[in-house]
TrEMBL record:
Taxonomic lineage of the native organism: Eukaryota, Fungi, Dikarya, Ascomycota, Saccharomycotina
Single GO MF annotation: 1,3-beta-glucanosyltransferase activity
GO biological process, one term: ascospore wall assembly
Organism: Lachancea dasiensis
This enzyme's EC code(s): 2.4.1.-
This protein's name: 1,3-beta-glucanosyltransferase
InterPro entries registered for this protein in UniProt: GH (IPR017853), Glucanosyltransferase (IPR004886)
Localization, UniProt: Cell envelope; Cell membrane; Membrane
Length: 491
């Protein structure tokens, strides 16, 4: 009897610890119209936020949303409080180092959806004259982003474009170029990345184009077999305040994408006409009515910017002030973790026969798709690769996981106690992984020199001025934790 009890207790303890920490961060893959954990094969639903502190002007040669480990620690702590599993970032610079932030995100169980474009010159398509921007410099930039982020297991997917088609003229000029970019990215990934990372598109909230464009980007083109997207992101601001599945028009969204052969999700949502936002649409999004068609979504957006969609206000000292929207969304996201919603998710996905990919038509409503796009422009870059440091997980010191910034709750009260990233995945840092980048000495040690030297000097200066806490000399803390959990991982 006592033996039984203690065995049970041991089992409970083990399963508790197993829940606490998994032994690696598993990639997410697509099967038919859903995302799955590639190792456990559990369905994966995106529960996230859009993340670009400072907006597009926050991006420059020295800083982007995933380059500053201290800022990442501050925000990942808040992502975990909010209960999310994914962020979307709109622009990064592949010349900066993202290893620390990506490792921390992986350890925290947070996946990344990344746009490969940026507002900088040569780093996006010109929507009205795409032929002027579809060139080697542009392709080199997007391949560099893939080369760097393709090596992190928690990169969930890449967006080839965001709202490129958003008016009559762009709908006339740009669609065929977007498909070409998708094709080039998929060919690059196939040739150079360690796994098949999905490539998708994020569509503007404009009904004239959203549905025809989804069909055009989905269809199979015998001539260019790799030019079809892997997933479709819908930016939707149609549920404002108190609505229902019907009054919001979500019912029509679901019927529009019911037969879609790829995963669809909200790449942006959260109408702010009525503020603070009540985020009632969250319950609908993860309900039985939507879960088979929509793979979740991302709320626009984490930080407060001039357009007033923020969940968190960051002050001039970098301290965080939670807004009412944060508190409401936190409770909505936590409500969809109830047993009832978990059951819905588990039962949602019927293994239905994979629908065949529709063939491309000659015409799509409101779009012109017959522009002549240069072929084989990417060929040399794909064969030779691009000169770019590959991202890899890095050893972190325990201090790296603690944010030194202050957090104030929505009443302005200081949140007491240390804010520390919770480890949910043990990230094993292999010696190869670490030496691969070899960047702890010099951020730019193996860059291709394509960015100017002045920038380089500045980056170095910044590194010297504010080094991360003595990382190379410190105990490999995560490896140490791995040792502690090692036996449990083996079970
Ligand atoms: C990445 O995922 C693969 C499974 O596809 C796994 O074997 C590996 O350990 C993971 N790497 C890390 C660092 O978690
Ligand atoms: C496209 O994908 C196929 C596999 O589906 C691959 O063999 C081929 O090399 C890719 N590229 C082109 C240009 O077809
Ligand atoms: C890493 O860089 C340092 C100097 O920058 C160099 O001495 C060392 O050999 C490099 N290590 C590897 C494994 O490339």
């Amino acid at each position: 009897m006592t033996l039984k009890v203690s065995k049970l207790a041991l089992l409970a303890l083990v399963s508790f610890k197993m829940k606490l920490a998994r032994c690696s961060v598993n990639p997410i893959e697509i099967v038919d119209q859903h995302f799955y954990d590639a190792v456990t094969h559990e369905p994966f639903f995106i529960k996230g936020v859009d993340y670009q502190p400072g907006g597009s002007s926050g991006l420059n040669g020295e800083r982007d949303p995933l380059s500053d480990a201290e800022v990442c620690a501050r925000d990942i702590v808040l992502f975990q409080r909010l209960g999310i599993n994914t962020i979307r970032v709109y622009s990064i610079s592949p010349d900066l180092d993202h290893d620390a932030c990506m490792t921390m995100m992986a350890a925290a169980g947070i996946y990344l959806l990344l746009d490969v474009n940026s507002p900088m010159p040569d780093q996006h398509l010109n929507r009205y004259e795409p032929w002027t921007s579809y060139n080697h410099n542009y392709l080199r930039h997007i391949f560099k982003v893939i080369e760097e982020f393709g090596h992190y297991n928690n990169t969930l997917g890449f967006f080839a474009g965001n709202e490129v088609i958003n008016d009559e003229l762009s709908a006339k000029e740009a669609p065929a170029f977007v498909r070409a970019v998708v094709n080039d990215m998929k060919d690059y990934i196939r040739a150079k990345s360690p796994r098949s990372i999905p490539v998708g598109y994020s569509a503007a909230d404009d009904l004239r184009y959203r549905i025809p464009l989804s069909q055009y980007l989905e269809c199979s083109d015998e001539d260019r077999p790799n030019s079809s997207i892997d997933f479709y992101g819908v930016n939707s601001y149609q549920w404002c305040g108190q609505q229902t599945f019907q009054t919001s028009g979500y019912d029509q969204l679901v019927s529009a994408y019911k037969e879609y052969t790829k995963p669809v999700f909200f790449s942006e949502f959260g109408c702010n006409i009525i503020s603070p936002r009540s985020f009632e649409e969250v319950e609908a999004l993860y309900s039985e009515e939507m879960i088979n068609t929509f793979s979740g979504g991302l709320v626009y957006e984490f930080t407060q910017e001039p357009n007033n969609y923020g969940l968190v206000k960051i002050d001039n000292d970098g301290n965080a002030h939670l807004l009412d929207d944060f508190v409401v969304l936190q409770s909505r996201y936590s409500a969809v973790e109830s047993n009832e919603f978990q059951m819905i998710r588990q039962n949602a996905i019927n293994p239905m026969a994979a629908a065949p990919l529709p063939s491309c038509q000659n015409e799509y409503e409101n779009l012109e798709t017959d522009a002549t796009v240069p072929r084989n422009l990417a060929e040399d870059l794909i064969r030779g690769g691009v000169d770019q440091k590959r991202g890899s997980f890095t050893a972190l010191h325990e201090n790296d996981l603690i944010s030194s910034y202050k957090i104030h709750d929505s009443h302005g009260q200081l949140v007491k106690g240390p804010s520390k990233v919770k480890i949910v995945n043990e990230i094993e840092v292999t010696p190869e992984g670490n030496s691969n980048g070899n960047h702890s000495e010099d951020l730019d040690s193996d860059s291709d020199g394509s960015h100017n030297d002045e920038n380089k000097e500045k980056t170095k200066e910044r590194n010297n001025a504010a080094p991360l806490p003595a990382r190379p000399a410190s105990v490999l803390w995560i490896v140490w934790v791995l040792f502690i959990f090692g036996r449990l991982c083996d079970l």
